[in-house]
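Continuing from yesterday's entry. The apo prediction looked reasonable, so today I'm repeating it with adenosine-5'-triphosphate included to see how the binding region is handled. Same sequence as before; SMILES copied from the compound registry.
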Amino acid sequence: MWAVELNGVSKSYWMEQVRVPALAEVSLNISAARFTVLSGQSGSGKTTLLNLIGGIDRADAGKIMVADQDLGCLSDDARSDFRARHIGFIFQNFNLMPVLSAFENVEYPLQLQGVPARRRRERVLEMLAAVGLADKAANRPGQLSGGQRQRVAIARALVHEPALVLADEPTANLDSHTGASILALLRQLQRERRVAVVFSSHDPQVIAAADDRYQVSDGRVGALNAEEAL
Ligand SMILES: Nc1ncnc2c1ncn2[C@@H]1O[C@H](COP(=O)(O)OP(=O)(O)OP(=O)(O)O)[C@@H](O)[C@H]1O
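Holo prediction written out below.
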């Protein structure tokens, strides 16, 4: 079963009158309930690929299926709704709302979906406990360490039980020890909850931990075996 199917997907950006190709005819299937790593140098196209899979941006050509939904068939509003229901996001810079507490940040995806308050509370407390932050629910992001902020972001990405989590270099801004603990936590939660995680990184530890590995290079994507990667 596939969480994501890409067929002939291309994307360019325009800077003034100049076309900047970012992805060229990418065809790729990402398995459900597995941990997939996209590696590749800076500028190779990893973020562009994650933004297309996540429905944040639209492809110029090709077809993108996520959890059996063709994203190209959806209006912008329907795509936002689909994203809110079925996808979780984790970013390099955490992207937490600074004025909200850890509890409120994790609660936000459930509020968007109109989940009743009592159920929201149960889900948020369960997720904060699962990421080891049961005692930090009232803290704002500014009162948390980088690793703790990323744990809040992981709880937020999983709280609505998405089919797919997209993590764009989530350990890049953390020291290696904290990054390793975030990787281990995400790997554990991915296995327990049987969610597909797509993690972009050039960290050999992350590549080694993956079930499936792909190399993004100049806007093209190829399978990478473990020996090549390390
Ligand atoms: N908004 C944009 N406008 C113009 N060009 C862009 C834009 N976003 C990305 N690009 C270009 O598209 C190509 C792919 O960029 P992308 O951000 O996807 O790479 P990346 O592998 O995620 O890099 P990094 O690891 O540095 O984030 C690069 O040549 C980049 O300069």
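Comparison notes:
- The mean pLDDT is 94.
- The domain at 34-58+80-229 is CATH 3.40.50.300 (Rossmann fold).
Will overlay with the apo model tomorrow.
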